[in-house]
Amino acid sequence: MTEHTVRSYDEELSHLNNLIARMGGIAEAQLDASIQALIRRNSEQAGKIIAADAKVDDMEHEVHAFTVRLLALRQPVAHDLRFIVGALKVSGDLERIADYAANVAKRALVLNQLPPVPPMAAVPRLGRLVQEILKDVLDAYVDQNQEKALRVWKRDEEVDDMYTGLFRELITYMMEDPRNITPCIHLMFIAKNIERIGDHATNIAETIHYLVNGTPLLDARPKGTSVLPEPPPAGEGN
Amino acid sequence: MSNSDGEPVASAKIKVVARDVNVFYSDKHALKAVNLDVRANEVTALIGPSGCGKSTFLRCLNRMNDLIDGARVTGTIAIDQQDIYLKDLDVVQLRARVGMVFQKPNPFPKSIFDNVAYGPRIHGLAGTGAELEEIVVTSLKRAGLFEEVKDRLNEAGTGLSGGQQQRLCIARAIAVSPEVILMDEPCSALDPIATAKVEELIDELRQNYTIIVVTHSMQQAARVSQRTAFFHLGELVEVGDTEQIFTNPNHKLTQGYITGRFG
Predict the structure, then answer these.
(1) Do B247 and A76 touch (CB under 8 A)?
(2) A4 interaction partners in chain B (CB closer than 8 Å)
(3) pLDDT computed for residue A235 by the predictor
(4) Between A6, A9, A81, which is nearest B247 by CB?
């Protein structure tokens, strides 16, 4: 994109971009650290993650205030408008992602007090997949690369499949021995949190598509397997 | 570059059709092969940098360019399928059908009443004094000015404030029952409150008239129009629904201009 005649406007847009990039970097680091804290049973690290979540909340407020200011003072249109509204939405997704990471850390603290259970190994696998997706979508955001965003968007199917597999595995362990129920329930919530992070990454991919093209991404996203039963056909029930 | 709203809109009635319109001022090619459909009862905004041809195009629609020495217009412009550049066409009648409001309010040095009565008088639209008075009052009401001036209709139009003068000029334009109203930067000399009143008026007027407005204010184009056409260096670059032009323009030049990235 060429530069504005008013240079300070460009500087403001670039500041907004930097805020989002920094926020994305922190959210990524929080997710990575929370999975580390879980694998290594490191309660100190988990505590740090929980404390650091406030930083992401503050940054979200900063992005909100800054976008409101830009909307009021610059009255942006076209790509500028989509970019600013996009930043507002992405900041919301990143705040949620960091929240889920902090929740993983909180549950890691609890799990560290309990004897380890075997399915522990499958959770980091899901974590790594979602980390990759998050990294790719943030790169796509910085480059405003819609093809890359679209690839991320399609990969959410893999997350769904892996999550469903994990869900079944955890149920099996719980049925085997009721003493597994407490740690397995925590692992289940951890897996759910990580799966939700994947959903927010696909939201960001959709936002990228919108801000590059100006049109919403309307195709049906490929869905992986679900732990829920198929909904009844339209017209029946609700 | 051609008309980008290629697909005809079945529901909207087209009032003005311009095809391959070129304007030359002596050697200068001021308007290049413009194709534009203007929909009835909508406000169409013409935007673009200075010298882009938007005012030139506007002036083609009531043959104001006839008044400029060395100006030559080619192509066809039709209003309700009637070619307005036919040799034997009565230009005075055309300008009654296609009224115009200018950048600077330019009331005649006459009373408020006579300013509005002028057109109906020369076109013989009123048989009696009572009829004339009715036309004047109705026009002032439609222009949103009547309440402010009803007790001083015999005072000079030039004594009104800038915003009131502009609404007086709009009343004068609508007094001869035009079908199309052309506005050339109607608010550029007005303060924000007077601007808001004129914009509100433009929105009301489109119930009865087809309005084409040239504006340098992108926000104004966004606020008042349903369709926006972007001109650049004498060419019509893009025309579309105002919402689309301001959220997702098709053309890079449009994007550059409306976002303020223009050299």
Answers:
(1) no
(2) 259-261
(3) 59
(4) A81
3-state secondary structure chain A: CCCCCCHHHHHHHHHHHHHHHHHHHHHHHHHHHHHHHHHCCCHHHHHHHHHHHHHHHHHHHHHHHHHHHHHHHHCCCHHHHHHHHHHHHHHHHHHHHHHHHHHHHHHHHHHCCCCCCHHHHHHHHHHHHHHHHHHHHHHHHHHCCHHHHHHHHHHHHHHHHHHHHHHHHHHHHHHHCHHHHHHHHHHHHHHHHHHHHHHHHHHHHHHHHHHHHCCCCCCCCCCCCCCCCCCCCCCCCC
Average pLDDT, chain B: 91
Task: Determine contact: A238 vs chain B, CB below 8 A.
Answer: no
Question: Where residue B63 sits, what CATH number does that domain have?
Answer: 3.40.50.300
**Residue B6 domain-assigned (yes or no):** no
Domain residue limits at B229: 14-258
CA distance B260 to chain A (A): 6
Q: Can you tell me the ipTM of this complex?
A: 0.74
Contact A78 B247 (CB under 8 A): yes
Nearest Cβ partner for B255 among A5, A75, A79: A79
pLDDT digits (tens, 9 = 90+) for B52-110: 999 999 999 999 988 888 999 999 999 999 999 998 999 999 999 999 999 999 999 99
- Residues from chain B that touch A79, judged by Cβ atoms under 8 A, are 255, 259
A7-213: CATH architecture: Up-down Bundle (1.20)
Confidence of residue A237 (pLDDT cuts 50, 70, 90): very low
Beta B28-39 vs B14-25: how paired, if at all?
antiparallel
Is A22 in the B-facing interface, judged by CB distances under 8 Å?
A: no
Residues 6+ apart with CB under 8 A from B14: B37, B38, B39, B40
Rounded to a whole number, what is the distance in Å from the CA of B201 to chain A's nearest CA?
23
Q: Interhelix angle for B162-174 vs B192-205, to 10°?
A: 20
Comparing CB atoms, the residue among A9, A82, A214 nearest residue B260 is A9
Is the full-model pTM beyond 0.90? no
Consecutive 10-residue averages of pLDDT for chain B (263 residues): 46 90 94 96 96 94 90 95 93 93 93 96 91 95 92 95 94 94 92 90 93 94 96 96 94 93 70
How many domains does one find in chain B? 1
pLDDT digits (tens, 9 = 90+) for A126-165: 999 999 999 999 999 999 999 999 999 999 999 999 999 9
A216 contact B CB<8A: no
Task: Say if B237 falls within a structural domain.
Answer: yes
Contact criterion met (CB < 8 Å) for A78 and B219: no
Nearest CA in chain B to A75: B219
Domain ranges (residues) in chain A: 7-213
